[in-house]
C-alpha cells in the first residue's frame, strides 16, 4: 500500500510497501462497419381474371363441341390430322408501382378459335399448297403413316420417297388439303375428296375401281391410299407398253411379276399425274412452281432433299391452268388473288 494510506505515491521504507495505481487507459471506440446491401430482382405474379361472356359456348359451337363447325369440316381430327389445342388469346398490359412494367393477360379459347375456325377454314378453302400452316396437337394414334407407306413401297417395288413425294406434292402431306366431298364406289362412301380427287394421294373417284381390284381399299386411309397410288403407277407403265387395259383385278399379278420402278426414274410419277409424254411441264405446274418446272421436278426434289419444290405462284399461267386442268376437275383457282 502507499505510505500515506491514500492510494497516493508516498515514500516507501521499512516493511511498508508502496504501489502506484496505473493510469486508466480508455478502451478504444469500435470502428463502425459500412452499411451493407443486397439487391435482388423478384418476379411477382399478379393474379388477374377476365370476364369474357359466352366464350365457352362460342368455343364449343365453333371448334371443340361434338357438332362444332371445325369438326364437321375436318373429320379426320384426332387420328390423321392431330388433336385440337385449347389455345388462349393474349394481350399486353402495363401496370405501375415503384416502377412501370408490362406483362400479358390471357383470355381462354380465343387463340384456338382464331387458329382453327378462322385460319384453318380459310386454308382449307384455298387451292392446295396455299394458306397458312395450322398447329395441331399430337394425334391420338401413335402409328405413323410414313412407316406404312415405305412398307407399301417395298411390297410394290417402288421407291418409298416417290410415294411420299407424290403425297407431299398432291396434298402437302396435310389433311387440311384432302377435302370432305364424297365419292361413292363399290357400295362405300369416301368423304375425303375435293371434286373428283380423293384422299392423300388424289386418286380420282372414277378410277377407284380400276386400282382397287377386289381388295376393298379405303381411299381415305393413308396406307390404303398409298397402295392405290403404287398400283396406279405400275399399271400405267404397263399400259404405256400396251399390255394392260383392264385394271388391277385382272392385270395385278402380271404387273407385280414384270414391273418395278428404279430410283431416279420419275416417268411413272408423270404417268400417274396424266402426262402422256412423260416428265414435261404444264401450265399448272408452272403456275405452282415457276417457269420451266414440272411435276417430276417436284417429286425428284423430294427424293433428293426431303422437300418438294417451293410453291411460287406465277400468275402468267393461272388462267391457262384453269382452262387445262382445274375447271375440268371442278376446283378452279381464283386467279385474281395472285394479281
Spans with pLDDT under 50 lasting ≥5 residues?
Answer: 1-10, 140-145
* Spatial order of strands in the largest sheet: 3-4-5-6
Number of helices: 12
User: Structural class, from helix and strand content?
Assistant: alpha+beta
Q: Into which percentage range does the β-strand content fall?
A: 5-15%
Gross geometry: elongated
Compressed to H and E, one letter per element, the order equals HHEEHHHEEEEHHHHHHH
Distance between the termini: 122 Å
Write down the overall mean pLDDT. 79
Largest sheet: 4 strands, antiparallel
Gyration radius, rounded: 40 Å
Helix percentage? 25-40%
Number of strands: 6
Polypeptide structure, described:
- This protein is 37% helix and 9% strand.
- It is built from 12 helices and 6 strands.
- It has helices at residues 55-64, 69-73, 110-125, 145-156, 160-171, 208-212, 222-240, 248-258, 267-273, 283-289, 295-305, 318-329; strands at residues 89-95, 101-107, 181-185, 188-194, 197-198, 203-204.
- It has a 4-stranded antiparallel beta sheet. Strands 1-2 form a two-stranded antiparallel sheet.
- α4 crosses α5 (160-171) and α5 (160-171) crosses α11 (295-305).
Please give a handful of descriptors for the protein shown.
four-stranded antiparallel beta sheet; disordered N terminus; single chain; alpha+beta
Amino acid at each position: 500500500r502507499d505510505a500515506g494510506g491514500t492510494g497516493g505515491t508516498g515514500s516507501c521504507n521499512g516493511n511498508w510497501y508502496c504501489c502506484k495505481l496505473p493510469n486508466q487507459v480508455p478502451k478504444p471506440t469500435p470502428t463502425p462497419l459500412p452499411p451493407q446491401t443486397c439487391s435482388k430482382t423478384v418476379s411477382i405474379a399478379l393474379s388477374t381474371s377476365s370476364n369474357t361472356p359466352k366464350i365457352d359456348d362460342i368455343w364449343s359451337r365453333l371448334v371443340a363441341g361434338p357438332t362444332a363447325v371445325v369438326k364437321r369440316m375436318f373429320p379426320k381430327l384426332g387420328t390423321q390430322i392431330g388433336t385440337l389445342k385449347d389455345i388462349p388469346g393474349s394481350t399486353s398490359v402495363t401496370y405501375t408501382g415503384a416502377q412501370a412494367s408490362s406483362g400479358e393477360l390471357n383470355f381462354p379459347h380465343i387463340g384456338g378459335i382464331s387458329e382453327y375456325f378462322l385460319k384453318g377454314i380459310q386454308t382449307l378453302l384455298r387451292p392446295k399448297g396455299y394458306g397458312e400452316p395450322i398447329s395441331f396437337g399430337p394425334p391420338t394414334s401413335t402409328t405413323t403413316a410414313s412407316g406404312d407407306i415405305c412398307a407399301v413401297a417395298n411390297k410394290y417395288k417402288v421407291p418409298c420417297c416417290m410415294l411420299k413425294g407424290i403425297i407431299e406434292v398432291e396434298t402437302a402431306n396435310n389433311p387440311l388439303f384432302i377435302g370432305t366431298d364424297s365419292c361413292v364406289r363399290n357400295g362405300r362412301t369416301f368423304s375425303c375428296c375435293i371434286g373428283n380427287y380423293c384422299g392423300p394421294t388424289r386418286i380420282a373417284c372414277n378410277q377407284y375401281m380400276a386400282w382397287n381390284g377386289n381388295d376393298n381399299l379405303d381411299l381415305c386411309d393413308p396406307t390404303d391410299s398409298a397402295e392405290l397410288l403404287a398400283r396406279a403407277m405400275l399399271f400405267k407403265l404397263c399400259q404405256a407398253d400396251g399390255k394392260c387395259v383392264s385394271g388391277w383385278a385382272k392385270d395385278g399379278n402380271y404387273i407385280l411379276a414384270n414391273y418395278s420402278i428404279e430410283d431416279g426414274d420419275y416417268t411413272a410419277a408423270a404417268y400417274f399425274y396424266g402426262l402422256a409424254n412423260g416428265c414435261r411441264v404444264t401450265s399448272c405446274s408452272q403456275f405452282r412452281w415457276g417457269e420451266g418446272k414440272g411435276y417430276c421436278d417436284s417429286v425428284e426434289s423430294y427424293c433428293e432433299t426431303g422437300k418438294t419444290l417451293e410453291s411460287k405462284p406465277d400468275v402468267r399461267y393461272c388462267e391457262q391452268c384453269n382452262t387445262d386442268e382445274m375447271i375440268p376437275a371442278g376446283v378452279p383457282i381464283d386467279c385474281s388473288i395472285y394479281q
